[in-house]
Amino acid sequence: xxxxxxxxxxxxxxxxxxxxxxxxxxxWLLCVFxxxxxxNRWRFLIGALKDLDCSLRKLNSRLFVLRGKxxxxxxxxxxxxxxxxxxxxYDTEPYSLNRDEKVTSLAREHEVEVIYKISHTLYNIERIIxxxxxxPPLTYKCLQAIVQKLGPPKKPISAPHLENMKDVKTPWSExxxxxxxxxxxxxxxxESTSLGEELFPGGEQEALRRLDEHMKKTAWVCxxxxxxxxxxxxxxxxxxxxPYVTFGCLSARTFWWRLTEVYxxxxxxxxxxxxxxxxLWREFFYxxxxxxNNFNKMEGNPVCTQVDWDTNxxxxxxxxxxRTGFPFIDAIMTQLRQEGWIHHLARHAVACFxxxxxxxxxxxxxxxxxxxLLLDGDWALNAGNWQWLSxxxxxxxxxxxxxxxxxxxxxxxxxxxxxxxxxxLKKFPPDYIYEPWKAPRSVQQAAGCIVxxxxxxxxxxxxxxxxxxxxxxxxxxxxxxxxxxxSPIKEQGVKRKALSVSEMLQKKIRKE
Length: 512
Ligand SMILES: Cc1cc2nc3c(=O)[nH]c(=O)nc-3n(C[C@H](O)[C@H](O)[C@H](O)COP(=O)(O)OP(=O)(O)OC[C@H]3O[C@@H](n4cnc5c(N)ncnc54)[C@H](O)[C@@H]3O)c2cc1C
What we know:
By secondary structure, the protein is mainly alpha-helical. Helix content is 47%, strand content 5%.
């Protein structure tokens, strides 16, 4: 049990609302950092913080939000508040490892005990790597075999009760509100007038409500197969729990065990396509992100195929701003910008289009755009999935290219999804909604939308560029296998002694 004066930090923008670190606590602090975070994600985070503060008030506590650089702020607080203990959730992102190492060493200088817990993932990622002989599994099957050996993930611990907080008093005044209150969008310098409806409000209460709602649909949960869920339904065909898991509003372990309860005694789908399977995909990419150097980059990343991507700011801007002239792609990018969430297969479609499919632009550029616009933006998952979709790592069937026309048609023949997000095309008949440039002038006039004037011409000829790009990809793969003798991928196969979490932390920081 923590004492008065202990400091519990809920740290980073991503894992803001962690439950696991302690059974009781006095104050919760949050360190957020600005950067490549879009306004929708800020709104989500602020909502989540308000919800957390509300829950803490019920426990006679409060959330304290600190402003400033962690390494400047903490030493001051250690003295001012007589801090004796500091706890945080272990976060494997290099930025966070670096920050936590700095704060930990400052805390030690101030004789503050530091405790961290591993709870953002189902398993201790280091254990998975250790079980695999000291290297990250590069296939899902391999990961599955390892976690089978490890057994089911730990059960989540329950939330603190008022009894745990009996002797706790949290001083709070009007001044504290000014100094430690939850920031507003305005304070962060963000213009909120452009924001649309808040479809996915942040916070644990909403996360649990959403989880309950889904878990009640037992037949849906038991028959869930990800590839069969459509990317372009008018309301989401998957759970949209990702922003809540990313921000720590919902523990991956709670999600896992709730699914286990639903599955019990019933016939159900299995990994990789089931919902348990989705959580294991998360684990897979987290493991890669810890065990593979430069995971969010092509250069210096030993598993990533080196591709001679083009630099083309015009194409990149057209993709980002939903001006490619391919309605399916532009509708997805519009949904992403407006709502902050898009279906997994929609992410496939736009990621393939940007990279190996059509525009031949580096996956790192797409990664940046997603990081900014996704509510669920997650360093490890974003980097891992972008490598997959660009066939740079993990997935190697580069000759399988998504068509920006035929793919969407499979699940939405009439183009209702396109009409929702691109109202300029709403009067186009189904025959032309995916390819408005093919519509006769009279049809365009009747639809009130002239291609080239009211909606752009397609930016590329898909049939031609995709063929050329497959060839370029083939060359990159050929080069990769000819370089294989010196390839660091081979080195990765060499067993190394598994490192402890703190050794890994030190190692990562040294590499920064
Ligand atoms: C290019 C690209 C970038 C992506 N970037 C992110 C990202 O930044 N953050 C993120 O959370 N997901 C990312 N994903 C993975 C995936 O698309 C989302 O996790 C999923 O669509 C979220 O919707 P959901 O909660 O309804 O998923 P569900 O299908 O309901 O799955 C349940 C949970 O499993 C996890 N999950 C599902 N699919 C994946 C996957 N492929 N990889 C890892 N975890 C998964 C998520 O935590 C999700 O909430 C990306 C996928 C692609 C193709």
